[in-house]
Structures are given as C-alpha cells and as structure tokens.
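Deviation from plan, reported transparently: guanosine-5'-monophosphate complex.
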Amino acid sequence: MKNELTGQLVIVSGPSGAGKSSVLERLLTRSPLPLQLSISVTTRSPRPSEQDGRDYIFIDHEDFVSRREAGEFLECMEVFGRGHWYGTLRQTVEEGLEAGKWVVLEIDVHGMLLVTEQMPLALTIFLHPGSLAELEDRLRKRGTEDEKDLQRRLEVARKELEYLPRYRFEVINDTIDRAVDEISAILLGEREHVG
Ligand code: 5GP
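Because the crystal trials were delayed, the predicted structure below was used instead.
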C-alpha cells in the first residue's frame, strides 16, 4: 500500500490458540512504529475474557449479512465451516493507512489471500507454535473449547500450515517476548527497506 497511501498493511495469520493475540498485544505497546490493530467483526459469541469493541465487534448473523451486502468488508470469511463469520472493515483499514498507520490485520489464511489480491504490498507474517502437538497442548491449557471444537481447530490448523509458503515471514511463537522481538525486527527492517 506504500504507493497510494502513506501507511503499511501488516497481516498476521496462524492457528487459533497459537498465542497471536498475546503477541500482538505486546507488540503494539512496544513497537516504535505507529501500529494500529484492526478490530474485526464476528458473528461468534464472545469468550468470557473478551470485550465488544476491544477484541472483536460482535454482531448477529443478520447484521453481518447486511454489512457484507453494503460492501463494508475488505474481506470476510466463514472461518470454521459452521456458521461463524469474521470480517475486516474496509473503512478501518483505509482510514488507518491514510493516516500513516501500520494497520495490523489478524486474519486467517483465506482472508490473507483475499486482501493481498487487492493490496499486494501487504507484509505477511505466519505465526505458529512450531508443531501441531505444541498447539494441541496450548489449546488444552486455554480450555475455552470443548473436545469437538478443539479437534476442529487442530484440523483447521493442519490445513492452514499448508499456506505457510504463501507468507513472506514465518515466526515461531516459542516464547511471547522472543516472537514479539522477531516481529518488531521484521517491521523495522521493512521500514528501512521501503524508506
Ligand atoms: P478466534 O475465534 O479464535 O478469535 O479466531 C478464529 C480465526 O479467525 C483466527 O484464525 C483468526 O485469525 C481469524 N480471524 C479473525 N478475524 C478475522 C477476519 O476479520 N477475517 C478473517 N478472514 N479471519 C479472521
């Protein structure tokens, strides 16, 4: 997006439960760059620790469909194949980039493909825990899914890993701080590169 707008689009994907949110939260407080996390819209229910407007904008399916028809989403997806939709608000991204922000999207692999078709200069990072066994361990410790949901997430993760080669950078989230430092360095390197 460097050419038309002054900001930079950053896409971070990776299996659910890989600790993406914790890494991004810390990255946002530490990076010297003007990072802005894009809050997605979803039809899934909030988890106990989640807040509307901070973690997601939680809406019902009907509202989602009408916003989609109105063209409000830069991309949107039914991520787990059971009726839960997720979408990136076009306005949030465009306004952020116009204001010179480094807009960070935390979206799935299909969302990444849709966005990079429209914005090929987006910087793409795949963040993952290193192995599926490690991911299973983290999901079990988090304990927010029942067994069926957990198995579905592992299956999705297995498929998502196949998209790893489509990303410019791979970061293993072995410890949060190390992953944050690595992403920080990638972003600063990009700033040097694009000037
Ligand atoms: P969770 O339900 O665990 O918060 O997220 C499930 C998956 O949805 C994650 O892989 C996350 O990256 C993805 N996701 C969250 N927001 C969006 C979005 O706006 N668009 C797309 N395509 N995926 C999203």
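The chain has seven helices and nine strands. We consider this an acceptable substitute for the interim report.
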